[in-house]
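Q: Could you fold this chain for me?
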Amino acid sequence: MATVVQKSWYEGAPWLPLLYPLGNLVAFIAKARWKRFHQQAKTPPVPLLVVGNITVGGTGKTPLVVALCKHFSYHGIKVAVISRGYGAKPPALPWSVSAEQSAEVAGDEPLLIARRTGVPVVIDPNRRRAMEYAVREFQPDIIISDDGLQHFRLPRTLDLVMLDPSRGLGNGRCLPAGPLREPADRLNQVDYLVLNGKPDSRWPSAVVMALQPGDPVNLLTGETLPMEEFAARHPLVHAFAGIGHPQRFFSALASWDIRVTGHPLPDHHQFVADDFAGLQGQTVIMTEKDAVKCSAIAGPDFWYLPVTARLPGVFLDDVLERLQRSRR
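A: Sure. Below is the predicted structure, expressed as structure tokens.
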């Protein structure tokens, strides 16, 4: 049912107008909440950047957060990340994520960020509490909030919105009548808009992020293969993607002349061995976010494809400079 509704946001459906009144109510409440927050905005204890979106579904925030962490760290800045920890089951909250933890405890995206960056990552649905914990335990110079744009109790220095231009804003309506968490004019109030993929004339001033695939990595051995060699050895693959936009992953593989049998799954899907039933002896490849959940059930020919966000250096420098300037 959820898939049918989500599809209708982008392709239309004769029954969708029945949801317009609810969507209008959500838009009204969202605007009221934003106005109240703006009037009562507080300064965070350290500069805080929110990386979020106004649409439901994945837009590529995690690679962007990783890129920002690495850029800040390269310049000698102590950075910490806070996250809701969707799907995580930590023994306590707030919870400090470390690279050796399981995705069941830490959540897939927080664990991936911790492993790729080495920076402190704190999960807690109460983002303000996560922020306070990170400040107290790690004394960061800057905090990045992975998502949380609509978490108005969280004080912030800058807001950055990630958008997938191939999907855009759908029908431009708020939930449940459309994919928006807030009205579209919220984009006029954020500090940065980043497009995942390519420029779009609808947002001429947006920054463009490109996702560059790396070399496939074997889940069990850690072996890496150049993509050309992987494609030659494995011309037929079963591709699994529990992310917001699985087709992007399948298309990237197909561009290497690999015959792809795609297995799209819900975002944050919790994998079990039965997901791979009947695939013994066949090549399986997945996203890195999915791979952190599959090490215990992976077969010898299970691979993942890491990606790296490529962004303009002037953009990364500007974000850092504005965050640092806020402390002066």
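A (continued): The two ends are 51 Å apart (CA to CA).
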